[in-house]
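Example record used in the benchmark description.
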Amino acid sequence: MKLDIIGDVHGCFEELQLLLKKLGYQEQHDKFLHPENRKIAFVGDLTDRGPQSLDVIRLVYQLVIEQQIAYYVPGNHCNKLYRFFLGNNVKQQHGLETTVAEYEQLTDKEKTEIKEMMMTLYEKAPLYLELDPLQLVIAHAGIPEKYIGRHDKKVKTFVLYGDISGEKHPDGRPIRRDWAQNYHGDKWIVYGHTPVLEPRFIHNTVNIDTGCVFGNKLTAFRFPEKEITSVPSTMPFVEEKFSY
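Model output (structure tokens):
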């Protein structure tokens, strides 16, 4: 199996369409197909902040649930939107407000459809994806070797939010430890969550969240070739959002 693993989309639907086309996926009779039968994987954070979160949900639902040519693991923003759809009292901030604003413009029928799509995607998704034949793990914020195979609350927090200490930056963002520096496993770990200007390779890990929603680019990591393919963002560039 050959995979195209796509970084955090965050509602950047136009860039996602361009990236799929650049990767060789062709839309035929409302279906996406690849001449080499490659599959797609999403590292989570499909929605929030960007302009077309609901279109991203529709497309990913089509690829993952209907066509079954893609994998999806949830990110922290996916988790938050899921809890919003459950009716939980979730603060509409850090990007969720943009998705909710789109959602509120829909008819009742459309609201039901998009809510069911997102909840189905989330409920059917693994916490992180282990593809043993490829010696590959896909996890939204990464995963240390000692957690691979576990699915408890501690692992869920790490996979969704990263290696957080509870401390915060002056602007309120959580301080995240650089877990990848201490990873020495044989399996490749592909993740996103923390925006980087260029895909960040450390040991057998790569961060492919190249901050499309913050004006940089949307990136795919082709596996097992270990090649990078990107398309530029249409969004304004926000330099302070990038960690490396």
